[in-house]
Amino acid sequence: MAEPRQTTERDTLRIYGMSFDFPASQKLEFDPKFTREEGSVAVKSPTKSVVFVTWGELQRVVKKLPTPKEHSRYSMERAAKNSRGRLNQVEQREVRINGHPAAYSRVEVEVPRGMLGPQRPKQEIVSVHLHCDRTSRYFVIYTSSDWGGPGAKGRDDVFRVVTETFRCH
Ligand SMILES: [Zn+2]
C-alpha cells in the first residue's frame, strides 16, 4: 500500500523492552515520571495531532478486566463518563500485535451541547488495548479527535504506523 509522503521517513523508539516506529516529522513527549512498569509517551506532530502510548502493570487490571476486549470497553466507558457523554461503539475487532490478541476499537462520544463548545459535539476515540504476559504489562495506544480535530491531517497515519510496528517484548 502506498504511503503519504509525510510518513515515509521513520524513526524508532526503543525503550524498556518496547519499541515502535513513528514518522520522523513527529516529536516525542514523555510523561516525566515514566518507569519500566508504568508511563506514557505522546507522539506529536506540529499540527497538534497526538497519538498516546501508555503502559502499566498487568496485575493491576487482569483481575477485573481479564481480556483486552473487556479492558478496552472499560476504558472507553470511562472516557465517555469523564466527558459526561454517551458512548457509541462504531467498530470493535480483535487484532494481533506482537503475537498477542489485542482489541481495536473506534468509538464516538456524544458530548452534551455546551460542554466542549459547538464545534465538536462528537469526540472520536480510536484505541488498541493489549496485554503482554511476557513483560507483565498492559499497553494502550490511542488517539482522539479532541487533538487536532476530526480527521486531523496525519493522525490516522501516525496511529497506524505506531500500532503496526509496536513491539511489547
Ligand atoms: Zn508482549
Cofactors, ions, other ligands: zinc ion
Please describe the biggest sheet, giving its number of strands, its sense, and whether it closes into a barrel: 7 strands, antiparallel
The order of strands across the largest sheet is 3-4-5-9-8-7-6
Helix content: 10-25%
How many β-strands, per DSSP? 9
Q: Overall pLDDT, averaged?
A: 87
Notes on the protein architecture:
This protein has 169 residues and is of the alpha+beta class. It is built from two helices and nine strands; from the N terminus they run βββββαββββα. The strands form two sheets. The chain has a seven-stranded antiparallel beta sheet with strand order 3-4-5-9-8-7-6, sandwiched between helices. The protein has a two-stranded antiparallel ribbon with strand order 1-2. The radius of gyration is 16 Å and the shape is globular. The two termini are 27 Å apart. Bound molecules: zinc ion. The site of zinc ion (ZN) has 7 residues, from loops. Zinc ion binds at residues 98, 100, 132, 134-135, 168-169.
